[in-house]
Design brief:
Number of strands: 4
CATH topology: Rossmann fold
Mean pLDDT: 91
Distance between the termini: 26 Å
Length: 149
């Protein structure tokens, strides 16, 4: 294992719907349930509002991993928003595989507002997954370009 991967602390962006996932994150915080501080939450009115470009821009901006968290299937406050988000995530995963970043760096989760503990588990799970994968190929490319200059 080289020095870069030993010291690697992944940057993760979590796109969370207001009614369930963000409320679960809030519950985790108010219950003092620990989860990795490298997970940055982006509040969305509904997971269905996540756009393919948002997901791709998160990687471009330096995220090593990204996940979308929405309501449980069948309980979306906007009826089918989480189902639209799931389709978008699947599409972007295939794009990430095609361009060599890796679709496993992106995931979709469903949880209720009462699942603060589950939110923390997801944050830990994604952090460990991305830590095992190492830095995003985009970030590795950027650091090499910076070293060349």
């Amino acid at each position: 294992m080289n020095q870069i991967t030993e010291d690697f602390e992944p940057q993760i962006v979590a796109f969370c719907c207001r009614y369930c996932a963000y409320a679960a994150a809030d519950l985790a915080g108010s219950s003092r349930i620990q989860y990795p501080p490298n997970v940055k939450i982006v509040l969305l009115p509904c997971s269905g509002k996540v756009d393919e470009l948002y997901l791709l821009k998160a990687f471009e901006a330096g995220a090593d991993g990204v996940y979308v968290a929405g309501c449980l299937e069948g309980t979306c406050h906007f009826l089918t928003g989480n189902l639209r988000a799931k389709k978008r995530v699947q599409y972007v995963k295939s794009l990430l595989d095609e361009v060599g970043i890796g679709g496993e760096r992106l995931e979709m989760y469903n949880l209720s507002s009462a699942e603060g503990q589950r939110f923390a588990e997801i944050a830990r799970e994604m952090t460990e997954r991305i830590r095992a994968l190492g830095p995003s190929p985009l970030n590795q490319r950027k650091s090499k370009e910076g070293a060349i200059k």
